[in-house]
User: Fold these one by one.
Assistant:
Number 1:
Amino acid sequence: MQASPRPLGPPHSLLGTPLTDTPGTPSYPLTDSFPTLPGPPSTRAPISTEPGTLGLLRTLRPGPPVDAAPWRLGPGSRKCAVPCRHLPRWSRRRLLPSASAAIGMWSRRSCRYRPDASGLEELRARRREQESALRKARRQQQLVSKRLLREDSLVNGDGQAGVEIAVEPLSDQEILQLLRDVQRGTEERKKLLSRLRQGLQHKETQQKFVRLEGSMRVLIGLFTSSLANVQMEAARCLHELSHSCDPAVAEACLPATSYLLTYLSGHSVEFTELCLYTLGNLAVESDAVRKQLLPQGIIPALASCIQSPHVAVLEGLGYVLSQLLQAREAPTKIIPLVLDSVLPQHMLQLVSSNLELGMGVAVEFAWCLHYIVCSHVNNTLLISQGIVSTLVLLLLELASVMSKAATEGLELLICPVLRCLSNLLAEDETEGCKVQIQDERLLVALFLFMQYFLQQHPFLVQECLWLLNNLTADEPIFCSAVLTMDLLPALLQLLSCSRMVTLLALTVLCNIAEKGPAYCYQLHQKAVLPSLLSTLALSDAQVVGQSLELLHLLFLHLPEAADDFLSQAGLQALEQHQDNPQLQERVRALSETYLQPAAASLISCASASAAVLPSS
Amino acid sequence: MLLPPELSVSLRVERPLLPVRPRTPPRAPFCFSPSRLRFHRQHEFFEDGDIHRHLYLQDILTNVTEVTERSKVSEFCCHIVGCCQVFDTLEGYEHHYNTLHRNMCSFCKRSFPSVHLLDTHILEWHDSLFQIMAEKQNMYQCLVEGCAEKFKSSKDRKDHLVKVHLYPSDFRFDKPKKAKSSTKHNKPPSKLDVSMPMDVNVETYEQSQADSMEICPSESVENPTQPMSGPISSLQEKKLYKSRSVFPLCKLLLQGSGLHMCWSST
């Protein structure tokens, strides 16, 4: 008789009282020690006065709501004649680390290999290739990616980069034999299915498999069996098929979707995670797949599943949802269903969830929110659910976290959040309420992001500037804050970056200058003119045009700026563009309205002062 | 970037606001007016960020670290009475428990993948009141979560599932209640035997439950006669009896029918 550990049942789901460990058993993370979600964010939390670091960005949130409801026990009594109403499946919202293997894709996001120097170069080359392929796909509006959940035991032992598959493909006969043996149960089923799964990593095997008559049916039969390990291996086979780049292979998995959806309401973390990623892969495959998934109730199934406390499940769910939301028909067919369900509220909670544990989860749902917001279906609903304050507070938190620990991958979360806020700010007033943000700390966060990501991920700088533009367009608060917080030098530094960044930075400066003389005065004091002179030397007409607009605003509100501009050889800088049809009108207007009169008055001043000087 | 040092320190709760001049329209030929920009989903502005996101999805993004090993524990047994399945990982045990024991019907010992399906099963199979009410009104609830339709009969519901929800017509978790058959499927398959029932668990008496929603030996055994393996706390014990996962002894039955079956995961 084997010694067995304390009978704990499946981890996480039973009693909340801690049980004593017996030697040799792993300790299960217990409910009481789990990190809790922060409570609902307030619209403006008080600012702490912690000096030095970015303690000022840390918001003081109310603590998590005390929830007295007990964990739902395992199998409840089923003897009653009338079935009991369901208890909510998970009474408390806490992100749980899953059972050790199903730790979520975020935690496994690094390469599984440790390549040597040549391997690293190969990896980089592969990445460059992949990147250009993706760009091309996006320009054709066919940007599609799938995810693969694969057991790590398949990695080649000596860590050779690029060598993913350790087994040979299978022939038709071998596949048939494997399936027969599995049905008969002559050998150990799990091993047989493992062999099949390894073979299915090869495209040829996948194609052969789906072409064999009855093979899919047998696989689905195994997938729905009640022998747990058989079911798991069959699920892994299905997952390999779903990841295929051959659309025929993925579409052959269609008969399994009703079962995949049914199993989403199960409790096995690893199995549910696998089902989710399989569904996510299938969902991007084609319109035909989604046309089946939607009537089969994928949205309600996800809406139930999102109440799971397990990180791995939530991350998988976010992945499925993000895949659905990227579909061409999403704005008309999918987003309305999603908005109608409880998904948005949960998404908002999860996006600002405990970042240490739920980073991957937050990333997925942030992208989901971005796809919804930028489709402009019903952003008023999201606004009424508090999306703006949630996201602002999230950015503040990220900015304070960023300075401490170099959290890699933060840009994956920050990017979609910035986009959401920018688009929400630009919501049409006629459609709903105009969004106003008045928290200046957001400004600090944005500049910190730009500083942090300028070298490594410059794309984020332009996203930050977009938000900065939307913040400064109407709100004098932010314009004033840029000046009084001495952020202008940083902004001016951005004028020498990429075209889009320069253009956006100039637009922000125009937003500030437009507010009036007091702003122009500050701009002038803090040396905006020299930077403008540099941009005038550029060849891009749009950039120069925006510089001219800025000059106009400066001269309009602050006449002495024209004098200084002249004295810095501004006129010559302008004259280079006087033949450019896009620019000439404005160049002329600037010269005639401001610069020539200024020059004339300078001359007359000079001659006047010369007149009073004693002649030598 | 040239950020001022101690930036955060300079932030006060209330900052004096510079006076604002009322907005006037731009004078020609100048056209600038501050406006909030809005980009739609396919805009090229999003290209770089989208590419980055997809590189992450394809797992090509970052550098290399160790991969955590799946933790193994010493072998242990399932604690449900009569189930002698052995495991060496937590996940394996968890999955087994959820598949076989978690949502099990106390009346007929069948397991279901979810509470929802279990409830529906109990209602339709074991509730005499249900049968009476079903004669008067539509009681067969659609199985798809979120769909509130109800039907007069199991067949009507199946038609609905197939037509509206595009479910397969042989959906495994929607078998109508039938008298127990004792068909045996012992013929050796010469090719892939697709007529064989989906479930591939145990050969003989499982087949007799081909019509059932899920698998368990149909013969009910009143009392567990085998001592439970391992120490069990009183709490756990109570839970076991209270929960409907008392599992008739497959081992005993198997020995009775002359077959050697011990479900092992190794």
Note: The two ends of chain B are 59 Å apart (CA to CA).
Number 2:
Amino acid sequence: MSDSRRRSRGSQEEPAGPSNGVGGRNRSERAAEMGEEDDIVGGPSGISEEDDDPTRRREIRSKYRDLINQVQQNREDMLNPANNKLTDVLEEANKLFANVRQAREAALDAQLLVLATDLGKEKASQLHAEGSAFDPSAFAEHLLSYMGLNRLEDESGQDGNLEGYLPQGAWQKLANRSEHCFKTAPSFHYMLGSFLAEPPPPRQRVERQRKVPGKEAKRIMPTQLKKMEESHQEATEKEVERILGCLQRYFADDSDEPISYYEFVIDPNSFSRTVENIFHTSFLIRDGLARMYLDNDNLPCIAPVEEGEVEPGGASIRHQCVISINHESWREIIDAFDIKDALIPAPEVLSQES
Amino acid sequence: MSQRKKAVSASQNKTQRRSQLLLNESDEDATFSQITSSQVQRARENFTSDQIDRKVAEVVQFILIKDQKKIPIRRADIGKHVIKDYKHIYTDIINRVCRTFEQVFGLKLVETDPKNHIYILINKLEPIHGEPVSMRPENPKKGLLFVILSVIFMKGGVIKENLVWNTLKKLRVDPGEKHDEFGDVKKVVTDEFVRQKYLEYVKIPHTEPVEYEFRWGLRAEKEVSKLKILEFVGELFEQDPQSWTQQFREASTAGTSSQRTS
């Protein structure tokens, strides 16, 4: 292409030797520096004044530099097989070259050509490859659609401005889909967090819970027990004393008549009270405050022991016997002795009376 | 004057300490290779099977925790923190660890670097399409990684870094700016992904100013299915994946070779 241009111009000027794209940048900078000197020194001989116009030349150089920048900055875009931007650039350069008269501008033209041919080569290699080419720009466009890009209504369509915005969770959506391409081991996390901190707290809690009821229980129990014991003791003692009182009263009323043991202890209204009476009476016997004996009919009788007769320690001959009674016997005795009322009044009756 | 001396000596100490640390670590690793078979035999007799079982379990736990960050695990670290006295039966232990991972967890312990003895954990099981892979939502960075890996693969395996940055810019991810979701994008791509061995970020020699190129990292080679990437790309372009014949060929052979090694 450049050959045909040169031929059409027919000028003896040749563009500067080929330089690679990377070095070209430095050369153009150096050329720019030299440019100042050139203008001062003056153009080479054999060139018309029209061709030597510094303003025009500066303009041309500036335009070339613009084209070079354009190609460098938008490299990927230029490579896009979907557009002809590269061709457009070359056509621009063609137009500019028509006005090129001197080496400096031609050097820029050459630099631009090197860049363009580089791109052209890559663009060609895309076509050359088997199968479809892969265009990252198009890939990006498809990804944006997939991620749900919200395009604004007044999209200008220019490449410089990125219109539209991605919704929340767009990247999450892509990540979820692309996950399937990976065989990543799932990250291992303890369900309960760090395992170091765990064991102590539950143990403390349990201990505290255990301790508290324990203390209270201990506190409760002694008091309860004590109360029970006292009441039990008191109740028994009181009961025994009361029964002794009864016995002594009855005996005082009629000291000659012996009191039948059965008549004394049995409560015709309550079997359980009868048993209690037998129990309490046994204390009197044990303590030597009352005595039992068999009368002429061989029936047991009970009588209080005179005060004088009470022997401390009970040195007298001790006899033991076991008295048992069951419901049936109780009934029989009630019938046999025809016991109508209890000789030992029940404690409630007493309280009512008092 | 004296302050300067102190500063100098402090920095010297720091480098000394660092080099000492490196020495210790390489010593640790070196001792692994100097183990004789008679030492191994004696070591096997020294420990009860219960003790060895427990050691195996400890190594498994260690690797699972270390894997959370997806940074490859060094054998020296395993030795220093877990194995310790059981060093001589390291091979026995690590074999059992591998078996445990495969049979209990469905994971594979892969040595990505046989020279430096570095391991990664990957999933033995293939993900099922349509079903979520894990209970927790995937890190959005995976999407970013996917884009980069796809471009590298579709472009033949090596690309200049500018291609990555330009593509990301089109996706509204600018490495020069802080991104809402990814933060310092350049750091994530050139540091985090590289340390995790998903990417390689290599200087191109003789470039001025310095240019870098991207390739797939060792972890990506083991973990990522080229075929699946090609399929997804095909979906996006609404094209048959086989239309990219070169890439399809490479994806197919990569798939079969990995099957052979597993």
Note: The first strand of chain A starts at residue 259 and ends at 260.
